[in-house]
Design a protein that fits this description.
The complex is a heterodimer of chains A (about 260) and B (about 200).
Chain A (H helix, E strand, L loop, with lengths): L3 H26 L2 H20 L8 E6 L2 E6 L6 H10 L5 E7 L7 E5 L10 E6 L2 E8 L7 E7 L10 E2 L29 E6 L10 E2 H7 L4 E9 L2 E7 L16
Parallel strand pairs in A: 3-7, 9-12
Antiparallel strand pairs in A: 1-2, 2-6, 4-7, 5-6, 8-11, 9-10, 11-12
Chain B lengths: L17 H9 L3 H23 L2 H17 L11 H19 L5 H6 L8 H10 L3 H11 L4 H12 L4 H8 L3 H19 L3
Classes of the chains: A alpha+beta (about 260), B mainly alpha (about 200).
């Protein structure tokens, strides 16, 4: 019995493997010396970049320290082409795209994926916060694949690529002082136009589903706000527990109120 | 050749990581990757079909998984685990992305120029027979009582009524992605109920 899908996919994969092998062999013939020379050149150029104070990419800070490229986004830089070009000049040829995020995640990396659908093991994130990071460290001349996604400001109607801390500065519940409040007390404190849902976090509920604030208050008005995630500028899910705290975490609110 | 009924050789000895050895060989030998594929295709397809209950998505995810494995061969280190566990790590990541985004990732296939074969009727039937949902149906009345109503409805519509996700979403008043997540969670719970305690 023939197996159309299985056979065809096998042919595609083995052909792709042969193409990759051919390219690899051809590259090797170009000479290991050229690779070494290129790496050396990259290191020199990257080092020279450090000394160049009038950089066009003011929002991307790149340093070389002990054979490592140290990359940080500054000044809320979120222009993917600017970031990509700056990295390319430092010898790091990666793809960079921008996705909508909440104000607190703008100008931060929200994803880094390598060839194996996971972050490359050589990459070390810098200043991590809620799954986003301000920068990263990679070896100079690192030859791998990397797809970076940087957060850009979402429009009023866009869903965030990554949910943000709704209490952070600029987010829908910033300065609302709802952390630790009982559900029964929070209705009047939510900005007009913000749709608030409640997710009850409990060891007894393995598959919690967000419900409306009214439903949550009817079920248990004493539950307390332990955190909140913003999925857009108008869609917020409050995390509620009996203690006002999430296991193993410390909720944070904006300090700019 | 019938790849969908193939599985790892029963003569494989415990402690011999044949898949890991094939992945290492595949760095220089394309045929070794073909052999690795032959040994694992059925397992990967079943992994995805058991979780998605959708033949097309399972096939799509399988194609992306093997392509991502091919693209990431140079990252595989035997010290990090068996070849099979490494590949299922990729499969698991792609499955989580699928649930999160509501679509199957295509990046690896685009990068390597791998086209996804179209499933014909025989393929569909073959994949559907790989995972027997009969045990799920048998325990449904009892096990469904353990699920929350929102999950229960989604599982019933998918497993009992065999509706497509688009229609399940319409009936439940949610997005297709949300319907997928609910069914997936329900299947996980049913799977747990099927396992001996």
């Amino acid at each position: 019995m023939s197996d159309s899908f299985g056979d065809s996919l096998r042919d595609e994969l083995v052909t792709a493997a042969r193409r990759a092998r051919y390219r690899q062999t051809r590259r090797r013939r170009m000479g290991a010396l050229a690779t070494f020379g290129a790496t050396l050149l990259i290191a020199v150029l990257a080092g020279a970049q450090l000394l160049h104070t009038d950089r066009a990419e003011a929002g991307v800070d790149i340093k070389v320290e002990n054979g490592q490229l140290v990359v940080r986004l500054t000044d809320l830089e979120f222009r993917s082409d600017v970031i990509r070009d700056a990295l390319a000049r430092a010898g790091l040829h990666v793809t960079v795209s921008a996705q909508p995020v909440g104000p607190s995640d703008v100008g931060r990396f929200v994803s880094a994926v390598g060839a194996g659908a996971a972050p490359p093991r050589e990459l070390h994130a810098l200043s991590e916060r809620d799954g986003t990071f301000e920068g990263f460290v990679l070896p100079v001349g690192w030859p791998g694949e990397l797809d970076l996604i940087v957060g850009r400001p979402a429009t009023a109607t866009e869903t965030y690529f990554k949910a943000s801390n709704a209490f952070a500065a600029g987010e829908p519940l910033a300065c609302s002082h709802l952390l630790g409040q009982a559900l029964r007390d929070i209705a009047g404190h939510v900005r007009t136009g913000v749709r608030l849902r409640v997710l009850v976090v409990s060891v007894n509920e393995a598959n919690p589903v967000p419900v409306t604030l009214e439903e949550a208050i009817r079920a248990n008005p004493d539950l307390q706000v332990a955190g909140a995630k913003a999925f857009s500028s108008s869609d917020v899910v409050v995390l509620a527990t009996t203690t006002g705290q999430l296991p193993g975490t410390t909720p944070t609110a904006s300090s700019e109120c | 050749m019938n790849h969908l009924v193939r599985s790892g050789s029963p003569s494989d000895r415990v402690g011999d990581d044949v898949d890991g050895a094939l992945l290492m060989r595949a760095r220089t030998s394309p045929d070794a990757f073909g052999e690795f594929y032959d040994r694992n295709l059925r397992g990967v397809l079943a992994f995805f079909y058991r979780r998605t209950a959708c033949t097309e998505s399972a096939a799509d995810l399988t194609a992306e998984t093997f392509t991502a494995a091919l693209a990431g061969l140079h990252r595989y280190r035997p010290a990090d685990g068996t070849g099979r566990s490494w590949m299922f790590g990729i499969a698991n990541n792609l499955y989580r992305q699928y649930l999160r985004r509501g679509r199957v990732e295509t990046k690896a296939r685009r990068r390597l120029g791998v086209r996804t074969p179209v499933l014909d009727l025989a393929d569909l039937e073959r994949i559907e027979t790989m995972v027997d949902f009969a045990p799920y149906v048998a325990i449904l009345p009892e096990a469904l009582g353990e699920l929350s109503p929102i999950i229960r409805d989604a599982v019933e519509l998918r497993i009992q009524d065999q509706l497509p996700y688009k229609e399940i979403a319409a009936r439940l008043g949610c997005t297709e992605n949300s319907a997928r997540v609910r069914v997936s969670r329900g299947l996980d719970r049913l799977q747990a109920a099927l396992e001996p305690s």
